[in-house]
Amino acid sequence: MTLYLDTSSIVKLYVDEPAREDVRRLVSDASVVVTSQVAYPETRSALARRRRDGGLSTAAHQNAKSDFEAEWSLFAKVETSAALCSEAGDLAERYELRGFDAVHLASFAVMLRALHGTDDVEFSSFDDRLNRAARRLARTIG
Predict the structure, then answer these.
(1) Residue 105: CATH number of its domain
(2) Which residue among 16, 44, 57, 134 is buried most deeply as judged by most CB within 10 Å?
(3) Is the pLDDT of residue 66 over 90?
(4) Distance CA 2, CA 33 (A)
């Protein structure tokens, strides 16, 4: 299976939150885990926000950040480009998405096109609107 993770799912790999084990199971079942390049600053931001808000101690934040940094190279990444950003803008309007959610959706679309309609694809996000958009988009590409 090819698995696409948005930032909300990636963070669960490094922070003890609800559904953490679900994401870990998906990752362990995947042959390839894909994300967008924008997931790097988004994940670092999310980890730092949890530290500032008291959800992570300084030590837990450092461990989560170190683990993420060590594993970042294991993700297949969809590069951002002018074309991808343009598509993300269209998708943001069509599906009423926030900016980086639209970038993740456009990255998922790039991945789907590269796989030529392979059925063994999963999209993991903890944003309901983004999940609905990904399902709709997968039907149009697949």
Answers:
(1) 3.40.50.1010
(2) 134
(3) yes
(4) 6
